[in-house]
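As described in the Methods, two query proteins were run sequentially through the folding procedure within a single session, without resetting any intermediate state between them. The first query and its resulting C-alpha cells are shown here.
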Amino acid sequence: MNLRPLIQSIKKYFNRYRVFLTYSGLLYLTAMNFVLRNDVVDLKVQLAELKAENQKLIADMVYFNRSFEDFPLPVWQKVKRKDKFVMQYVNGAYYEQYLKPNNLSRFDYMGNTDFDIYDYSTALQYYARDLQIALDGGHKRFDEFITVKKKINKLDVIKWRVIERRDTLIYGMIIPEKLKI
C-alpha cells in the first residue's frame, strides 16, 4: 500500500483550511477558558456563603450555650467529627483567660481543632484525653498545660462526655486552685 498519495491529500487539506483549523482551536480554548472562569467565580461565591453561614452557626452555638456564658469558670465544648475534635464553644471566662492574652478571638478557635491553635505536642495531649473521654464516657480530671503569653500554666481540668443525637460532645472545665480537692 502506497501512503504517499494519502499523506499528500491530508497535507493539501490542512494547507487549504489552515486558518480555519487554527482559529477554531483558539475559539474552542477561549470558550473553555470563559466557562472555567465562570466556574471559579461561582466557587468563590459559594465559599463566601459557606464562610458566612459558618460564622452564623458559631454565633448560634454561643447563643445555644448561653447558660455557660457568664459562668465564672472557663468552659468549652468540642464535637467529634470523624477522627477530629472540633471546638464548638468557649465561654467568656475561657476567652478572657486563655485566648485574649494570646491575641486570639473566640472565632479563631471555634470551628478549628487544637492542632490548628496549639503546638503539636500540646494538641496531641489534648486530643488523647478527648479521645479517652469520648470512648470511656463518664468524667475524668487531668493535669493539662497551656501557654499564655509565652508562659506555661498547669491546669486542673475536668472533662466529660455528652452524647446528643448522633454527636459526641466533649465538655471541659478548668478547676481553679481554690476548689481543688
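Immediately afterward, the second query was submitted; its sequence and C-alpha cells are:
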Amino acid sequence: MLSIQKVVVLLDEFHLKEFRKYLEESKAELPLKLVDAAKKLIPRIREEDEKDSDDLCKIIYKKAGVQEKKKFFQLAHHTFKLTGYLSRNYPSYLLHNISKIEHFVNQGKLRRRIRLRKYCWMQRKRSRTSPLRAVCCNSLRNTRTCARKKRKPYVFSKGMQP
C-alpha cells in the first residue's frame, strides 16, 4: 500500500475536503485524481479491500507499463509531499484515529488496530508531532506486553491520555 493511500485512509472527511481544496487551488490535477482514485478503492481499512498500485496506475494513466509505473510512483511521491500542507495547517489532523485504535482494541480486533496504528506511526514519523507518536509507542508496547502475557490490552479512558 502506498503512503498516499495510507494518508487517504487516515484522513477524516473535513481534512480530506481541505486537502482536495488545496490541490484544486494549486491546480494539481493529477494528484487530485490520485487522491480521488485512492479514496474510491479503499472504502474501509480492511486487508481484502487494499488494492495494488497497478490498479491506481491504470486509473490515472490507462496503462500499467514500465514507463507509466515510473511516472505513477513519481506522482505518488509528489502527492505525498503535498500532504505537508495538512501537517503545517492542521498539526493534529491524524489524532482522531486514536479513538478508532482504542475502539478496535476494545472489540478485540487487534489486527485492524495494529494496521491503523502502523499507518498513523508512519505518517507522523515525518512531521515529528509528539502526541500521536507517544500514543502509538505506548499502544505498541502495550500490545506486545499483553500478547506475551496473554491478557487483554489496557485501554486508557477518554480523560486519561498518556
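Residues 97-149 form one domain. We note this only descriptively and draw no conclusion about the first query from it.
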